[in-house]
């Protein structure tokens, strides 16, 4: 092999093994994540058409990272409102947890009673074993 080809092969191999900066794949939601409210309460309807999307301002667990079934505090239409997460964009595939196109949540009051009367999106069947979500299961129509 001549010297020119040898240098070309070395340059090509160094280009293909170069380390690029890649952001971490999302598995859960965190502070300032945008959410989609999927119940039929009045605040949900008005909040989804408001000029700003509902965002998480607090996650009620020790890790400050929320998953399906966790309670969060949202900023909706300039108000603070509690919600339960019923769907996350998971880029990392896990067994038994479905992937969703958007981060979904349902608005609740302090006793975990939903503010709406119906959930308009499918929710995961794994929420049936969660004791905080029994009232959500009662008003849900579709399960994944």
From TrEMBL:
- Supply the Pfam families for this chain: Ribosomal_L14 (PF00238)
- Where it mainly occurs, coarsely classed, is mitochondrion
Q: By its UniProt entry, which SUPFAM superfamilies does this protein fall under?
A: Ribosomal protein L14 (SSF50193)
Q: Where in the cell is it found?
A: Mitochondrion
Instruction: Enumerate the UniProt keywords alphabetically.
Output: Mitochondrion, Ribonucleoprotein, Ribosomal protein, Transit peptide
| Record-level Gene Ontology MF annotations | structural constituent of ribosome
UniProt record, GO biological process: translation
GO terms under cellular component:
mitochondrion; ribonucleoprotein complex; ribosome
Q: So what family is this one in? A: Belongs to the universal ribosomal protein uL14 family.
* Family matches, as PANTHER family: 39S RIBOSOMAL PROTEIN L14, MITOCHONDRIAL, LARGE RIBOSOMAL SUBUNIT PROTEIN UL14M
Write the protein's name.
Large ribosomal subunit protein uL14m
